[in-house]
Amino acid sequence: MPDEAPQQPEPEAQEQLPDETDEGIGPDEPGELDEPEEPISWQASEFVHHHKSPLWYGVLGLIVFVLAAVAVWLHLWLEIGLFLAMGAAVVVYARKAPRTLLYELDGDGLTIDGKKYGFEDFRSFGVVEDTEWHSIDLEPSKRFSPRMVVLFDSSSLDEIVEHLERHLPRADREPDVIERITRYVRF
Fold it and tell me: 7-40 pLDDT, tens per residue?
C-alpha cells in the first residue's frame, strides 16, 4: 500500500481568523472595562490598641511570678530569665501606642505610608468585621511571609472591598486560636 499524503483543505474552506491588529481587538487598547481606577486613600491606626488597666498588668505580673516560681522549684535556671524577659517584652509592647498610617489603594496595589505592596504579593484577602473596627486580612503569596492586617473605617467597607475584588479573590476566614486569645485578653 503506497503512503498517501494527507489532503490539504481547499483555501476557501479554511476559517479566516481575525487578525490581532484589527480595530478594537488589540491588547494594548483600553476598553470600556479597563478605565483607570480611582485611588482610595484613608488614615487609620496601624493596630487596635486597647487600654490596659492596672488589674491587667497585675494579672500579667502574677502569671510571670508563678511561671518563675515553678522554674525555681524545678531548678530550671535559664527559664527564670526567659519568663522575666517575656514578661518585660509583653509590658513594653502593651504600652506601645499605635501610629496613624496613610493607606492608599490603587490599580497597582496597596501603599502604606509610602511603602508599596503589589497585588501579586498577595494570594487573597478577607474582611474581618467587628463591632469596634473592620480590617482587611491579606494573605501573602510567599510561603513564610506574615499576614498583613489593614484597619479601616466601616464607612469605606463597600468601596474598599469592591476595589480589592477586582484584583484578588476574597477568602474570609475565622480567627485562629491565637487571634481569639489576644482579642479576649484585649492585647
Answer: 555 545 444 544 444 444 444 444 444 556 788 8
Predicted confidence (pLDDT) per residue in 178-187, tens digit: 777 777 777 6
Indicate whether 103 and 139 sit together in one domain: yes
- The number of domains in the chain is 2
Cα 151 to Cα 110: distance, rounded to the nearest angstrom: 13
CB 102 within 8 A of CB 41: yes
CA dist list (Å): 122 to 21, 32, 108, 114, 127 = 34, 27, 12, 18, 14
User: Is residue 25 in some structural domain?
Assistant: no
d(C-alpha 92, C-alpha 87), whole Å:
9
Question: How does DSSP assign 47-60, residue by residue?
Answer: S--PPPPHHHHHHH
Residue 84 falls within a domain, yes or no? yes
**Do residue 103 and residue 173 come from a single domain?**
yes
Q: Select from 56, 92, 84 the least CA-distant residue to 68.
A: 84
- What is the domain extent for residue 142? 99-177
Q: Crossing angle, helix 54-73 and helix 77-95, to 10 degrees?
A: 170
pTM (2 decimals)?
Answer: 0.61
Q: Quick one: 93 and 109 in the same domain?
A: no
Cell of 26: 488589540
